[in-house]
Amino acid sequence: MKSKTIKQRNIPPYPYIIKSIRVKPTGILMLMIIIGFILLFSNRDFAMIGVLIISISSFSLLVLPDSKIIDYTNEYAIIYNCIDRDECKLIYWDEILSWQYKWHTDKDEMIIEMVDLSLEVIETYKRSTMIPYFKKYAAGKEKANRRIK
Q1: Above pLDDT 70, what percent of the chain?
Q2: Phi (first) and psi of residue 125, to 5 degrees
Q3: H/E run at residue 137
Q4: Residue 88, SS3?
Q5: For residue range 55-66, what is the model confidence (pLDDT) as tens digits?
Q6: Is the CB of residue 133 less than 8 Å from the CB of residue 141?
Q7: Cβ pair 5, 89 in contact under 8 A
Q8: Which residues are CB-neighbours of 48 under 8 A, at least 6 positions away?
C-alpha cells in the first residue's frame, strides 16, 4: 500500500498541491477588516462598530493559531491531523475503498476507509471544502450520509 504516514519535511514536491485547506478563514477576516475601515470612515454613528470589527478580525488574524487540515493533489491527499505535529498522512485516491461525510452538532468528520480496511477520520468544519475533491478523485466511493446528533 502506497498510503502512509510520513514526516512533513518529506512530502514529495510533485505533483503540485491543487488546494490547501486551513483552519483560519484568512480571506473572510481580511474582508471584515476592510468592512471595518469602511464603517470607521463612512459615518460617525458606525465608527465604534468599525473599530470593534477591525479589532476582533485583527486579533483573529494575527494572534490566533492557524494550521493546515488537508492538501489536495491529483494523485493523493495530504492529511495533517496526526498526533505528532511533524507528521502527515498521504492517502492515495486509488487506495480509498469508501468515504463518508458525517455531520455532528459540534464538528463534522470525513471518514475514509482504505483498501486494507483501516479508517482515517478527518475533523472538518466546512463541507464545501472537502466533498468536491473527494467526488472528483474518489468518484463512486461515497457512502450514504446520515445525520448524527
Answers
A1: 97
A2: -125, -5
A3: helix 131-137
A4: strand
A5: 999 999 999 998
A6: no
A7: yes
A8: none
List, for residues 47-86, the tens digit of each pLDDT value: 999 999 999 999 999 999 988 889 999 999 999 887 888 9
Please state, in angstroms and rounded to a whole number, the distance separating the CA atoms of residues 108 and 101: 7
Q: Which three cell numbers stand for residue 71?
A: 492538501
List the Cα angle 99/103/107 in 5-degree steps. 110
Strand partners, 22: 68
- Domains for the chain: give ranges and CATH numbers: 4-22+67-137 (2.30.29.30), 26-62 (no CATH)
> What value, to the nearest 5°, has the Cα angle with vertex 20 and ends 23 and 123?
45
In this prediction the pTM is 0.78
